[in-house]
Amino acid sequence: MIAVVDYATGNLRSVADALRRAGAEFTLTADPALLRGADKVILPGVGEASSAMSQLRERGLDTVIPSLTQPVLGICIGMQLMCLDSEEGDTRCLGIFPAHVVRLRGGENPLKIPHVGWDTVGRLRSPLFDGLGEDTYLYYVHSFAAQACDATIAQTDYGGIFSAALGRGNFFGTQFHPEKSGAAGSRILRNFLTLK
Asked: By Cβ atoms counted within 10 A, which residue in 56, 68, 78, 191 is the most buried?
């Protein structure tokens, strides 16, 4: 069973639809026992970092999530919350990934922020990306991103390099939205669902 963390923020419907398309059985829950007993856990998210962390703390999930031993996938703000901290709301996060989340700067020639739409990911180095080539296009909607670090398993350049995906042990995260990224995103979700 896949557990999708329901903490009153995020893109639950689109993640649920993507899991249905993949033929996965799942439940939406904030119950620590169900999360610990799940085969896989997905931490989705859309919103603002400090309020999202507050929602996790209110449910006691700020201590549960880092203690999980099965594969865990954070999506968008779900991945950002798994980092050390975020400039958004000056937020202390879960500390799973050794990355700081910063506001996108836009580079020398100012780029539109938020970064919305399809962009390429490269330097892929994880089973999450099995079957995908360099410069695969995936879908983004964000104004903040994790800086590159030793846990970076894919990167994108948008006014500067940032972590498109992170991985450490049983924890994974994507800044892009695999559930909104067509066939490539579906492949990433299926790869996650087959991780041991």
From this structure: 78
